[in-house]
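Reviewer 2 asked us to include a model.

Predict the structure of this chain.
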Amino acid sequence: MAEKEYTYQDVAEHNTKKDLFMVIHDKIYDTTKFVDEHPGGEEVMLDVGGQDATEAFEDVGHSDEARETLETLLVGSLKRQPGDPEPKASQPSLSPSANTSTAGLGTALYAAVFIGGLAAYGTYQYMQAQKEAQN
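Predicted model (structure tokens):
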């Protein structure tokens, strides 16, 4: 069976609680049956109903289970036409991206503490040796 194609105009016509479509990553989902079960409440779904909900869906950081549930609601794909908005976000990776902008700071801090500890230990040993030499 061929996958049905919908335009943004087709999707926009399905924007009520009793008839709710949304676009996520250029795929069309009929979320009507799920709107009452959505853990975030029906309001969040109705806010993006009938339009591209990709950014809202990804910003929340849905679980793998939520993504599996979403796949059961798939009804078709988006047929892009001239003048349609560009995709909101790309397909996410399964693992979050690492924030490496401050990774070197943590290593430098540990190194400074370690070297400081060595210096303090060396000073302590030197002071003890001087004290014993005086006795």
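The longest strand covers residues 19-24. The first helix runs from residue 8 to 12. We have added this to the supplementary material.
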